[in-house]
Amino acid sequence: MTKTVIITGGSRGIGRAIATSFSEKKYNVVISYAGNDTAAKEAEELCRQAGALDVLLFKGDVSDEKNAEELVGKTLEKYGQIDVLINNAGITRDNLLARMSAEDFDSVIATNLRGAFLMTKYVTKPMMKKRYGRIVNISSVVGVHGNPGQANYCASKAGLIGMTKSAAKELASRNITVNAVAPGMIATEMTAVLSDEQKSAINSQIPAKRMGEASDVANAVTFLADENSSYITGQVIGIDGGMGI
Ligand code: NDP
What is the pTM of this model? Predict the structure, then answer.
């Protein structure tokens, strides 16, 4: 049976790996992104090569309610259904608390948490009607443990965990599961800004002694989004080489 997935921030990094994995499973893959058209086109091409039934690109800030509504509307118009939503779009604006501007606090909460709320709100109606849905939120190990210099980011990722559990309780009776994954250090453009010294300091704290790959996250996400994972809901799965133990 044909299935459709929306992946916010699906054009780069972890989102792109997730989009490719769903393509291999022959989904219609809807990729949202903020502004980098070149990366989005590359992701589209990779998904087509990987076997996606179809690919739809959507450019727009997910924290803007009009965009979230339009993204869901366009997906329904084109494919008639939404089986899976992956709330992956995320940004960082790191600084120590005393130096962090209110704007940097607000923008991280807006993209990482408000965006996920809006997308969940708008997919819920068609999923409830169909009595089927899988929602996976990309949180972070620092949403559980905190991290100096990332009060805004950690708050957004902790917020996602609370939202995951609440939505799971609200939607379980409609056969809609809502789970979160909490990746540790994953090699993407987001973490490429760290110096080699910072990376080796972090790696020494990880029991597996290495960073993870975007595909490690994608593997867990596609598992949670599978039809057969219907009795797993409200969970937070660490994908962190043991970092969160
Ligand atoms: P990247 O920076 O590599 O990619 C971010 C993606 O999100 C891009 O597709 C970007 O689009 C999109 N995006 C950013 N802001 C918005 C917005 N307002 N609206 C729509 N799309 C947006 O990030 P990663 O792949 O590293 O991270 C993906 C997720 O995983 C994030 O939620 C992150 O917090 C989380 N995570 C990452 C970890 C890591 O170590 N990398 C660890 C734990 C969690 P565009 O290219 O157009 O800007």
Answer: 0.98
